[in-house]
Amino acid sequence: MACVSHQEDSQSAGLGSVLESDLQTMGHLELESGLNEFTRAVVEEATRGPSVDGCLELLARVAAKHLGAYKTGFWRYLLSENSVECVHAWGPQEQGVKKGERLPIDSEVTSYILQGLSRKIRTLPAAVIRERFPRAPLLERQARTLYVAPLFLRNELLGAFTFECDREAVDEETLDAFKRYVDAVALGYGGIRRERGSTKRLLHMKLLHEITGKALMTLNLNELLESTVTLLKNYFFYYNVYIFLYDHEQDVLSLKAVAGEYKERIKLPMSLRSTQGCVGVAYRTRDIYYCRDTRTDPAYVSEFPEVQEALSEIAVPIVQGDNVLGVLDVQADRPESFDQFDLESMSALTNELASAITRARDYEILKNFSEQLRVYQQQMDQDLRISEQILNMNVPLDFVSPQVDTALHFRAHRSIGGDIVLLRAAGEYSYLLLGDVSGHGISSALISTSSFSFLSNLLAGAPTVEQLVQMLNDFWLANFKELGYYATFFIGRLHNATGSFEYINCAHPRAIFYQLSSGAATELDHGVPPIGFFELDAEAAIRQQWVKFAAGDKLVLYTDGFLREFPQPGRFTDEDVRTLVTRFGSLPHAIFHQFILWNARRMRHGVAPADDEVLLSLCY
After folding, report:
1. Which of 106, 259, 379, 500, CA to CA, is 20 to 30 A from 207?
2. What's the distance, Cα to Cα, between the start and end of the chain in Å?
């Protein structure tokens, strides 16, 4: 009997485990499927009025449903007053924090709550908080778990959410899915802070950022077009998105990329006559054509007779100079679905898309870095206003390490420099490389792109820093010596387990190493000349230097564009950076990085930078 009872108990426990797993899976799927609708609601709230309450309250509802949050707070950082303030609170405010309360940024409570805070959501057991701060009224009676979620818009820290929950912590997969909701709110919140209705423009700018980054990352035309239609569909919820490119030999508009309701039903390749439908009108007139209702517009012709078309449409020519490269066609499932912003944003998008298409087609010429490249640069100078997108392929999009937390600020100068940031994990090591190619313009951007790809391939073999410097210098001498380009580089390799960090500084601005235990800030000096200047053989004695990281130690690197200014030099110097590192070094890493940026902007107010700006910080 005992055996039977034990078996039944085991079966019951197993059934409960399976049921719990199924419920978690259902919760993940519900979070994933609800994201688009949530983002649409955030956009509507952001464009409705100047208050952020609607956007933040939407997130509070999702947190209540999926995290068990009975209380949500939003904290804003007040740099000028050295404090954080709870500016919004939803839920009971009896024992815990109340709306309007402030805490000093350097207090023990704030430091603990913000400790280790990066772009991920942090989970804190309520019992641990009560034990650590028994006299501080931080939580309500029923709290069992506290989540802290930073609110970032690109690299700007807007604030942080706190979610008090009366249940145990959820799994990491649920938190990762919920983080996407926080990111959607960041776009809405950031948009309202700038101007009414600007959230949709922020979404558009993020789209442009990804499209241009994709273009220069691969220089592959098909991938560029596919990513463009997919991003348009995902960000703006359009019904169908097509891109047609003009074929001179056949005198037709060939459909190259599709996203939306018809994607699976349309078989490529296919083409339209250049006189056919709304697409043909846009191509012939070189102007946007807005078909408000496909059922009544005489210009409308169904491009696909066997498919029921949408009910309104925008056809936008993709124009580069005197040439119409093709047409972007966007459709909706209701008549008169588009407004003036849709017309303006699609026009702006096709301007950048035209440049990206031209760059992809001309890649074989540009990669030789010949006289043809310099002619191309002169022709393209007028299109260099979005240089941040052009160079963003040379900065890391994702870097995950259990031992290292990183933060990056990158802002390209409109004349395009050639800065490179490469963070990569390889086996037991984490690599950190920061470089600056001489000169400006398309040439520098493409040379930096080639160097980025070359280094990325090398890191897979986990080389030493000496080997990296030698191989990179040989690569430059073989490819760019005749062009007169050189580059400064800081190249470092961290042993993840021990904290041992070996590095070589190739004439780059000195990195600053901050040690938490002593509060000391040390400059890491130059080691060898710039890359591409000289041949480096055995007699050159390329020797690495090293430092030892302990928990909480930080490393700060930057390019000369973070300091140099125009028209006058000098209000922000290397010594100022070192002072800021020493002053804020004990703060949590995300706050430390943000405070350096805030103070740098304040000290340089009214003075424009002369080159690309890069500030990279690392915390062990």
Report:
1. 379
2. 57
Q: Is the pLDDT of residue 22 over 50?
A: no
Residues contacting 5, CB < 8 A, separation 6+: none
Is the pTM for the entire model greater than 0.70? no
| E-assigned strand segments in 91-130 | 102-104, 122-125
**What digits encode the pLDDT tens for the residues 222-271?**
888 888 888 777 656 677 889 999 988 888 898 998 887 777 777 777 88
The Cβ of residue 172 has, within 10 Å, a number of other Cβ atoms equal to 11
SS3 of 48-74: the string is: HCCCCHHHHHHHHHHHHHHCCEEEEEE
Q: What's the pLDDT tens digit per position in 544-603?
A: 788 999 999 999 998 877 775 544 555 678 888 899 999 999 988 888 888 888 888 777
Please give the structure tokens belonging to residue 270: 């296919």
* Sequential DSSP letters for 172-220: HHHHHHHHHHHHHHHHHHHHHHH-TT-HHHHHHHHHHHHHHHHHHHH--
CA atoms within 13 A on the CB side of 377: 19
pLDDT of the residue at 154: 53
Burial of 54 (0-12, 13-18, 19+ CB in 10 A): middle
Q: Decide: 522 and 585 in contact? Cβ < 8 Å.
A: no
CA 564 to chain centre: 25
- The answer to which of 44-48, 230-234, 465-469 has the lowest mean pLDDT is 44-48
Identify the residue whose tokens are 């009414």.
Answer: 196
Going from the C-alpha of 552 to that of each of 197, 450, 588, 615, 619, the distances in angstroms are: 41, 35, 9, 19, 6
Q: What count of other Cβ atoms lies within 10 Å of the Cβ of residue 286?
A: 11
Find the Cα–Cα–Cα–Cα dihedral 14, 19, 20, 21, rounded to 10°: 90
Average pLDDT, the chain: 76
**Phi, psi at residue 405, to the nearest 5°?**
-110, 135
Q: Give the number of residues written for the chain.
A: 620
Residue 190 confidence (pLDDT) above 80: no
* Rounded distance between C-alpha atoms, residue 277 and residue 36, angstroms: 31
Of residues 245 and 353, more confidently modeled:
245
Strands (E), 385-532: 405-411, 419-426, 429-437, 487-495, 500-506, 511-515, 520-524
CB within 8 Å of 72: residues ≥ 6 apart: 56, 59, 60, 63, 64, 88, 89, 90, 91, 161, 162, 163, 164
- Whether the pLDDT of residue 325 is over 70: the answer is yes
